[in-house]
Amino acid sequence: MERPLTNFIRALRSSDVRVSTGEALDAAHTLKLIGYADRSMLKDSLACVLAKSPEEKVTFDELFELYFSRQETASNAEQDQTDSSDNDSSETDASNLVDLMESGDESAISLALEKAAEAAGVDNIRFSTQVAYYAQQMVKQMGGEALQARLLEALQQGGPDGDAEAQRLIDVRRDVTLKARDRAEKAFQVFGTGETQQFRDDYAAEKKLSAIDRSDMERMKRLIAKIAKRLAVKHSRRKRRRNRGQLDVRRTMRANAGFDGVPFNVVWRQKRKDKPKIVVICDVSGSVAQYVRFLLLLLWSMKDVVPDMHAFAFSFRLGSVDEVLEQNDFETAMAKILREYGMGSTSYGQAWSDLKINHEQIIDRRTTLLVLGDARSNYGDPRMDLFREFAARAKRVIWLNPEGPGLWGTGDSVIPRYAPFCAQVTHVSTLKDLERAVDEILSAYN
Amino acid sequence: MAKDLSTGYEPMTSVDAITAGLEGVGYISTKQISTAVFLAHGLRKPILIEGPAGVGKTDLAASLSRWLDLPLLRLQCYEGLDEGKALYEWKYGKQLLYTQILKEKLNEVIGDAGSLESSLGKLSSFEDLFFSEQFLESRPLLTAMKQEVGSILLIDEIDKSDEEFEAFLLEVLSDYQVTVPEIGTIAANVPPLVILTSNNVRELGDALKRRCLHLHIGFPDHARERRIVRARVEGLEESLLDQMVSFVQSVRDVDIKKRPSIAETVDWAKTLLLLHATALDETFVRDTLNVLLKHESDIAVIGPEVPKMLREAAAQKPGNRTASGYPNLG
Q1: SS3 B186
Q2: Of A266, A354, A386, B186, which has the fewest Cβ atoms less than 10 A away?
Q3: Torsion angle, CA of B227/B228/B232/B237, rounded to 10 degrees?
Q4: Pair A296, A200 in one domain
Q5: Number of folded domains in chain A?
Q6: Is residue B328 part of a domain?
Q7: Does any domain span residue B30?
């Protein structure tokens, strides 16, 4: 009875639940303790051992229902079968298959299906496109070829008898195929869905952000939530580095007051790391708006890790969008921002001077100034003086440019003039690029 | 690992026995909780309990200790907790004091030795004098290892500790042994039943999670909450109990900063009892809302909704509600 468990664990793994070998062993021990008899207790126990976060528990619940419902029909059928019949159906011929299907004995049929499924290796299914293939393989295992031959015979024979026989065989073939498809479909749900999702996710993460259409938005949102979580876990660890060699005299004396001042416990000075502070300035003119949407969504999902985060949007006039983002759900907020700031003709110079006049104090020495824009300023004054000032005030300036490096400096693009004051100018076009950029920004605080 | 199991854990023979035993000491368990405890005992693995504050994570450990009559050793985690506080420490002061007192005795011992070498030889025959168990201050983890018939070790709010400490726990939790360099390895005769709790302040490391059984305790459903309140607060009228539990359950459905947990329900029940309430009415609920809700903004959100919620709570038939929040508790 170990096989169902290993298969179940394989299904879990393919759906993004990480199960280590140690945990698999624990699960086997658990089965020994609990047994298969009490289904709900089995579920509770395995959930304890295998799924270790709320998200994993949800996946676990779904898969458990799917997987063990199938398992149950199989094992029930097996029991029935061992009682009633002793024929070895590995090489079922056509008449056996016809008899079986026409008998209407559900448990016998599902047992035969299970056997065929195992022989055809249906549980190795990975993509939905393979369902038809595996179904066919199953039918073959159950004697589909012999059936086909007899069907041909009947058709050649002709006459009312032959036609009736052919019709009967066609019905049987259709039933078998349908059942096999169902079985393969189920196998795909258990073993394949996770991998297919993974495949599509990988594809979406590599896709150009400007090319992502409405239908993919839900997937992107899910992906971004996942990325935000990953980054949050990575960067929420509070890091304190010891400065070895620098004695903290005051704290050492206090710690050792109980020992008559003899310094048993030596306390070293510690350096506290800065908490990250991000000020993001987004060009929301038409060409960049789509990128802004994803960047803001990603950053705003990380509010817990970086509470000190402020966003500004501009095309002509610049304004703070913190409040809009906080008070509305993301889509509404985004629409409002685009309506309010997205209309003017882009002027980086104007944006800098607005920032200087209204919000200068927001930039301090632990701020990362994050600019997202194509630096196409309609030939206006880029106000290098102000930008230089911000760069000097801030911890560093990172510029994310949705345009490829080949276009930098062409036409009205002034990015080469801003670049010397930036710690980094990066071309971002996919979700992966965004993740890398945000990761990099947060790493600077460790 | 086949060690004698005739220990303090004997009453834990089945999941049902655990549920019944816990109920005997006033802890209303669920199937999930009892199963996890049973497995923890069977597989000899720690349980990591996650869930909102005040749903009885810590209380589970305390109740187990009461039921099994085993000592409860509690290690409260906080930022900066280190081995010295968790495992053991040498009693420096006592060591110092003893050297002072024994100085003269030492002179006597060494006195007749001729050379430096021979006196060193004499001294080294007492080598373990100062680094023996006598001078070892054992902290919760070590104490738990030394218990003869087992113990309940509660490592509370592990998410508040530093990552280094989490890594250090791995040895203790997987082998149930502790290494003191000067003395050697101290292994537990009967491993303690370990319960770790976390409020998810930070994500715990995979290594730790892998070594533990994972249990999520969420908010209770109507029936269970009712039983808990009844077990904790005596003398509350049935109709009032129904009404107040329904009310709390509906408060939990609202999106507020801190949803009231069992602890708050129990407090509220005590308040109602103290004020001799016989039925919930609007002004009464408003006046005592601060027992249930701990944020000004939450009270502002719920306050205007009180009449509506009360009407709904009164109409509510007990038992047809399910718990909000994951996972569903049976």
Answers
A1: strand
A2: A266
A3: -40
A4: no
A5: 3
A6: no
A7: yes
Residues A191 and A60 in one domain: yes
Nearest CB among A47, A52, A264 relative to B92 is that of A264
User: What is the token pair recorded at B305?
Assistant: 């909704």
- The answer to whether the Cβ–Cβ distance between A54 and B216 falls below 8 Å is yes
A27 and A50 both lie in a single domain:
yes
Instruction: Give the pLDDT of residue B289.
Output: 87
User: Nearest CA to B140 among B112, B165, B113, B114?
Assistant: B165
**Total domain count, chain B:** 3
Residue B326 has its nearest CB partner, among A26, A57, A258, at A57
Domain that residue B234 falls in: 222-315
Task: Based on the fold, state whether residues B260 and B128 are members of the same structural domain.
Answer: no
Region A32-50: mean pLDDT is 87
Q: Which residue of A has its CA nearest to B214?
A: A48
The pLDDT of residue B328 is above 70: no
Q: Which chain B residues are within 8 Å of A48, Cβ to Cβ?
A: 32, 35-36, 39, 47, 213-215
Chosen from A52, A235, A265 to mutate, greatest number of chain B CBs within 10 A: A52
Give the residue, A92 or B97, on which the prediction is more confident.
B97
Say if the Cβ atoms of A44 and B32 lie within 8 Å.
yes
State mean pLDDT over A238-252: 70
- Greater confidence (B324 vs B244) lies with B244
Strands A396-401 and A424-427: parallel
How much is the pLDDT for B277?
80
Nearest alpha-carbon partner for A314 in A290, A337, A336: A337
Please, which pLDDT band fits residue A238 given cuts at 50, 70 and 90? Answer: low
Q: Which of B1, B13, B35 best tests the A interface by mutation, with the highest count of A CBs <10 A? A: B35
User: What is the per-residue pLDDT for B182?
Assistant: 79
**Per the CB < 8 Å rule, is A238 touching B162?**
yes
ipTM of the complex: 0.79
- Pair (A89, A179) in one structural domain: yes
Check whether residue B248 and residue B233 sit in a common domain: yes
Half-sphere exposure of B5 (CA within 13 A, CB side): 12
